[in-house]
C-alpha cells in the first residue's frame, strides 16, 4: 500500500507542477508512514525527470524505511538537513511529515519546519493531512500550523474529516478501496481515469 500511496503522491505532483514549471521538488518526510509515502514519491519523481531533495531529520530504524532510503541513495538523490536552505532552493514542496496517525504536540525539529511551510510562497502539496492538523478537527488552535493551509492536499484511500476545514485543491489517490468497503462506510469512490492513481475532486459535496 505504501508503494501505491507514494506513486499516487508523485502523480499528484505531476498534475500540479509538471517538470516544465520547475523540476526541483523538496520532499519533507516524518518518521512514520507518512514519511514513507514521501520517500516512495521521491523515487517516482526522480524517474519522471524531477530533481528531488529529501528532508528526513528523524529517520526510522525500521528495515522498510531503511530500504526506501537506500533506493534513493542509489539514485544519488540528495538528503538535506537544513530545511531553511532547502526551501530556498526548490520549486515545489511535498509535506509528508505527519499524516493520519498524528496527535499531540509537534516536536523538534518540526515546529520551525511547519512555521516555514506556513510562510512560504512556494506551492505545497500535503499528504493525507497538512502537518500539525488533527485528522478530525483540522488546524490546531495555537502553535505551529495554526495558520498553515497548503495549496493542495492528497487524501489517500478516502478523504478525512479535516477536509471540512480545508479550501485548497484536493486530490484523492491510491485506488485502494473496494466497492463493498465504500458502501459499508458510505464513501464515494471517485472516477479514476485509465492508469491514473489520482483524481482531483471538489472539497465540497463528498461523503467522508
Automatic annotation (TrEMBL):
Keywords of the record: Isomerase, Metal-binding, NAD, NADP, Nucleotide-binding, Potassium
PROSITE patterns: YJEF_N
Classification via PANTHER family: NAD(P)H-HYDRATE EPIMERASE (PTHR13232)
InterPro entries: YjeF_N_dom, YjeF_N_dom_sf, YJEFN_prot_NAXE-like
Residue stretches making up the YjeF N-terminal domain: 1-188
Name of the protein in question: NAD(P)H-hydrate epimerase
Catalytic activity: (6R)-NADPHX = (6S)-NADPHX; (6R)-NADHX = (6S)-NADHX
Gene Ontology MF, one: metal ion binding
Key word Manganese present: no
Signal peptide bounds: none
Enzyme Commission no: 5.1.99.6
Any Gene Ontology CC annotation: mitochondrion
Amino acid at each position: 500500500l505504501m508503494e501505491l500511496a507514494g506513486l499516487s503522491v508523485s502523480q499528484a505532483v505531476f498534475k500540479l507542477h509538471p517538470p516544465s514549471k520547475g523540476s526541483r521538488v523538496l520532499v519533507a518526510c516524518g518518521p512514520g508512514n507518512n514519511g514513507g509515502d514521501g520517500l516512495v514519491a521521491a523515487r517516482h519523481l526522480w524517474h519522471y525527470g524531477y530533481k528531488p531533495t529529501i528532508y528526513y531529520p528523524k529517520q526510522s530504524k525500521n528495515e522498510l524505511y531503511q530500504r526506501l532510503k537506500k533506493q534513493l541513495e542509489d539514485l544519488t538523490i540528495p538528503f538535506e538537513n537544513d530545511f531553511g536552505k532547502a526551501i530556498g532552493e526548490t520549486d515545489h514542496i511535498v509535506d509528508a511529515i505527519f499524516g493520519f496517525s498524528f496527535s499531540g504536540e509537534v516536536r523538534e525539529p518540526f515546529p520551525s519546519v511547519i512555521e516555514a511551510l506556513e510562510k512560504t510562497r512556494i506551492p505545497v502539496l500535503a499528504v493525507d493531512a497538512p502537518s500539525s492538523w488533527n485528522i478530525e478537527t483540522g488546524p490546531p488552535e495555537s502553535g505551529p500550523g495554526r495558520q498553515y493551509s497548503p495549496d493542495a492536499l492528497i487524501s489517500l484511500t478516502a478523504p478525512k474529516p479535516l477536509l471540512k476545514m480545508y479550501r485548497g485543491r484536493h486530490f484523492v489517490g491510491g485506488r485502494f478501496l473496494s466497492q463493498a468497503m465504500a458502501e459499508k462506510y458510505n464513501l464515494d469512490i471517485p472516477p479514476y481515469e485509465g492508469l491514473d492513481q489520482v483524481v482531483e475532486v471538489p472539497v465540497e459535496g463528498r461523503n467522508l
